[in-house]
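Protein data:
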Amino acid sequence: MKTGKKFARLEPMFGSLALIVAACFVLGIGWGYSAGKLTQMGPGYFPRIVGFALLGFGALSLYSDVTNPTVSNTRFEWRNLAFVCASILTFAALIDRAGLVPATFVSVALATIADSQNSVKSTLIYTLCVCLFAWGLFIHVLELPLSAFGRG
């Protein structure tokens, strides 16, 4: 009996379970801080939102894995990992120097390039929509002390 076949049915669930474990970790840390309220968020507000979102995505993904078992694709997509990591690092490098909108633009563009099926037009439309949403939410609605363009 091969051990590979023994765990083949469980393999697609590992990612979902990892999301649920990460959610519990984030919630556990965030719960020790005051949440505040929507207009005056405390230090525990955002970790709780992220934790519950991760928990929800993990639960939905696990449900999908259990109800629709599929043969797993054993080929790891290094290109996707590289572009998503580059996207995160680029955002971190640009947010203070270039501002929210350019950092978001470059970051989202890199992340969408990870999927080779995206066209230039769809990448541009999606990137502009996310930039507009980020600018409106973080600069105008939440009034965070971020510069939209360049150093504020």
